[in-house]
User: What shape does this take?
Amino acid sequence: MTYRMRRWAVTAMAAASVAAAGLIGAGSAAAAPSGQVDAGVPFSSAVYGTGCTYQLVVPVNASGMVYFWEQGQGQKPLFIGKAQAHQLVATVDWIPRHQGKRTLYAVQNGVKGPVVSAPVHQGYGSGWACFAL
Assistant: This one.
């Protein structure tokens, strides 16, 4: 599935869930991630690589700023970046810096969304032409 197809699917699912929940127009007080962060399928299809670039996408239920975080087991959270939600989706680039089991999550309006596990190994290459073993 291409990035555009995946982003469209995430946007459509987020819009449907927001409409079904009756949250459209609820205002920024209800703004929160409505799903977990999607880092896409890594090139190696099993793990993510240090130094590689991945696009993190999270569905949200309202417009507003979304903050992305990464955390290793027993470590303090690391700020990845922030993005303004657009059409119920927020997106930032993530370049893993540390190997090991990482958790990714998004925060909007002080509400933390679900966490997702992302195993990170040594990356070879850089940017989009990168893979992990």
